UniProtKB/TrEMBL annotation:
SUPFAM superfamilies: C-terminal effector domain of the bipartite response regulators, CheY-like. Keywords: DNA-binding, Phosphoprotein, Transcription, Transcription regulation. The modification 4-aspartylphosphate is found at D60. One of its GO terms (molecular function) is DNA binding. This is DNA-binding NarL/FixJ family response regulator. Residues 5-176 form the Response regulatory domain. CDD domains: LuxR_C_like. It comes from Streptomyces candidus. GO terms for biological process: phosphorelay signal transduction system; regulation of DNA-templated transcription. Residues 204-269 form the HTH luxR-type domain. PANTHER family: DNA-BINDING TRANSCRIPTIONAL ACTIVATOR DEVR_DOSR.
Length: 290
C-alpha cells in the first residue's frame, strides 16, 4: 500500500491534533503536526534528510496571526512547553498498521528563534525549497483574494475548515494527482482576482522591460534591500552614478519611492540580486533578470 505522508500546520493545538488524529485513522495516511511555519520547515528538512519526505501539507490560512495564550512563545503550540511537532498515535481498534510508529514525526521545539511565518509565506517557502510537496490551505472563511494569493504562491488547494473529513481526504488524494481544488463558490471570484493580477503583472513587466540592463541591475539590488552605497560597491560605480540610475528607475517605472519600485518589480517577477555572488556578478537570462 502506498502511504501518504501529511503534515498539518496550525497554531491552534486542539484543531491541529484533532485533525491529525482523524487523518491518522486512515489506513494509508501518516500524519505529523507542527505549530508554526518555521517548525514546519524544520520538519520538512529533517524528514527529507531521513528519506521520508512529506507528500502534502495542510496549512492554516491564518497561521501566525493569533497571539499565543498564556505568554507562550510564538511558533510553539499555544500555551505549552511541548514540542511543536507532536506524535499522533492511532486510536485503539483503528486499521492495523505494520509501522505503528510511522504515524508522525516528533521534533524538539526550536520555536521562537526563526520568527513567525504566515500561511501564504509558508506556501512560498515550501514550493521553493520542497517543490514535490503539495500545499493545501485550510481557511475559516472563503476569501477570493486570499485564495488567489495562495494559488499564485503555489498552493494546489483551498479548503474550508468546516468541510467534512471525507472532502478533505478527497482533496489530499486529488492534489497528489496534480489536481487543483477550490470550493465552487470561490471559482468566479478567484478567476477575477487572477485575471486582475495578471493584468497588473503584464503592465509591470512592460515597465521593467523599458529599463536599460544597468538599470535592471540596480533594480535587482534595490529588491535585495541594498542602499545606494552598497549598490555602488557591488556594481563598481560611484554613489552619484547609482543615484542617477535609481532616479531613472523610479521615473521609468512611474513611482516615487524605492518601496513602490520594489513592489512593482516583484509583480513583474524580478528577483533580488544574489548577494552571495561576487560584486558586479548580476546575471540576466534570456533577456530577463535571473
Amino acid at each position: 500500500m502506498v502511504r501518504i505522508r501529511v503534515l498539518v500546520v496550525d497554531d491552534h493545538r486542539i484543531f491541529a491534533e484533532s485533525l491529525a488524529a482523524a487523518l491518522a485513522a486512515e489506513p494509508d495516511v501518516d500524519v505529523a503536526a507542527a505549530g508554526s511555519g518555521p517548525a514546519a520547515l524544520r520538519c520538512l528538512e529533517r524528514a527529507a534528510a531521513e528519506g521520508r519526505t512529506f507528500d502534502v501539507m495542510l496549512i492554516d490560512a491564518d497561521l501566525g496571526t493569533a497571539p499565543a495564550p498564556g505568554g507562550g512563545a510564538p511558533g510553539g503550540m499555544p500555551g505549552t512547553g511541548l514540542p511543536v511537532h507532536a506524535q499522533i498515535p492511532r486510536q485503539p481498534g483503528a486499521h492495523s498498521d505494520p509501522h505503528p510508529h510511522a504515524v508522525a514525526v516528533a521534533v524538539p521545539d526550536g520555536a521562537g528563534r526563526d520568527g513567525p511565518v504566515d500561511g501564504i509565506s509558508l506556501v512560498v517557502g515550501v514550493r521553493s525549497g520542497h517543490p514535490t510537496v503539495r500545499a493545501v490551505v485550510l481557511a475559516e472563511k472563503d476569501d477570493p483574494r486570499r485564495a488567489a494569493l495562495a494559488l499564485q504562491a503555489g498552493a494546489t488547494g483551498w479548503v474550508a475548515k468546516d468541510c467534512s473529513l471525507q472532502r478533505l481526504l478527497a482533496v489530499i488524494r486529488g492534489v497528489l494527482r496534480d489536481e487543483t481544488h477550490l470550493p465552487p463558490a470561490l471559482l468566479t471570484g478567484v478567476l477575477r482576482e487572477l485575471t486582475a493580477a495578471r493584468r497588473h503583472r503584464t503592465e509591470s513587466e512592460r515597465l521593467v522591460e523599458s529599463l536599460t540592463p544597468r538599470e535592471r541591475e540596480v533594480l535587482r539590488c534595490m529588491v535585495a534591500g541594498l542602499g545606494r552605497k552598497a549598490v555602488a560597491e557591488r556594481l563598481f560605480l560611484s554613489p552619484h552614478t547609482v543615484r542617477t540610475h535609481m532616479q531613472n528607475v523610479l521615473g521609468k517605472l512611474g513611482v516615487h519611492s524605492t518601496l513602490a519600485a520594489v513592489a512593482l518589480a516583484r509583480r513583474a517577477g524580478v528577483g533580488p540580486a544574489d548577494l552571495s555572488a561576487g560584486a558586479g556578478d548580476v546575471v540576466e537570462r534570456g533577456g530577463q533578470l535571473a
